[in-house]
Specification:
Length: 116
């Protein structure tokens, strides 16, 4: 993964890169995103994970991240929507809107805001 970013000349534009080959337990285990959040110095509940597979969404939920599914990837809409709490996005514009709307207010976890 890092080699691809290097070849493309964009490695400096991307934060922590943690692939399945860099952890003991891959998706849907949250080890990758927990490590990334730690390197960024943010709590997982203050984070969103954007992905296109059920494994991505399960990983986000397990890590207490906001699960954001893109419907223009490999996953099927019904499968992705079947993971509780998943926000569905059909465009990058939708992704930006969902993440902006889900930002925690006053230190309250995103999931706790929805339950009010």
């Amino acid at each position: 993964m890092i080699a691809v970013l290097d070849v493309m000349g964009i490695r400096d534009l991307v934060g922590p890169v943690i692939g399945q080959d860099m952890v003991r337990r891959g998706k849907p285990h949250p080890e990758m995103v927990l490590r990334a959040a730690g390197r960024l110095g943010v709590a997982t509940w203050q984070s969103a994970y954007v992905g296109d597979t059920v494994g991505d969404m399960r990983m986000a939920v397990t890590a207490r991240m906001e699960p954001v599914a893109v419907t223009y990837g490999v996953g099927k809409f019904g499968e992705l929507a079947g993971v509780a709490g998943t926000r569905m996005c059909s465009s990058f514009k939708d992704v930006v809107s969902v993440i902006a709307a889900a930002r925690p207010r006053s230190g309250v976890p995103v999931g706790a805001q929805r339950r009010r």
